[in-house]
Amino acid sequence: MTNMPELRVTRADAGGKGTDGDASRGFSDLLKTSWVRSSLLVGVVIAAVGLILLGLFRSFDVGQSPFFGDLQAFVADYGLVGIFFATLLAGTVVPLGSPALVVAAALFGAPKIPLIGVATTGFTLGMLVNYGLAYYLGRPYVRKKVSAEKLDDIIHVWERWGWVLYTIFGLIPVLPVELLAFVCGLLKTRVDVFLILSFVPRLVVFAMLAYFGDYVGGWIGV
């Protein structure tokens, strides 16, 4: 595989001046794009619904119900395998909600360290699938997965922010970093950097979510 130099944020990309004001305006423009706004909105709604449900679970003491006991047993037997395949699919833009799955698995007793490693590895492999398909099949394939308008918007933002953008998206669970994997493959960016910046941010995110899920499990009495 021939590696091409990755796109980087340069002064020319930032309008020729490279000032803090230009960077602020650039980030503001990023937040104004429809696909980023919609992703943030969906994430906020899902987080709000999840917190409400957790509050209800605690209020009604459902953590001691037989149903929750069965879920704990299922997670103990099959949780890590399920999480691996679910996060792998989530990395390929299947809307499975890998962050929520990690929280749920930890809540129901999945061991945290293996859970973090399995979820991060699965998600990274899913992202690598996106990268490879876009790399070898090119724009016609990517256009089947991402609308032309959205793809143009993503490439425009990538040209301005490059790997910084990719890292930010990897650290914010509700943002569609999976779509950026297509752009990385399409533009034939460095695969070694791609893998590192796919794995490390998600490792951080899944670690935080796993420990949060474990804490919530104790809080609601699971």
List keywords for this structure.
9 helices; mainly alpha; about 0% strand; disordered N terminus; about 220 residues; about 75% helix
Walkthrough of the structure:
With 222 residues, the protein is mainly alpha-helical. The protein has one domain. It has helices spanning 20-32, 34-59, 66-91, 98-107, 112-145, 148-161, 163-171, 177-186, 191-220. The chain is elongated. The N and C termini lie far apart (49 Å).
* Unreliable parts: 1-20
Main β sheet profile: none
Strand-pairing-aware structural class: mainly alpha
Spatial shape:
elongated
What percent strand? under 5%
- Give Rg in angstroms: 19 Å
Q: What is the number of strand segments?
A: 0
H/E topology pattern: HHHHHHHHH
Distance between the termini: 49 Å
Number of domains: 1
How much helix, percentage-wise, in residues?
Answer: over 70%
The pLDDT mean sits at: 78
Number of helices: 9
Give me the secondary-structure topology.
Elements lengths: L19 H13 L1 H26 L6 H26 L6 H10 L4 H34 L2 H14 L1 H9 L5 H10 L4 H30 L2
Helix pairs in contact: 3-4, 3-5, 4-5, 4-9, 5-8, 5-9, 7-9
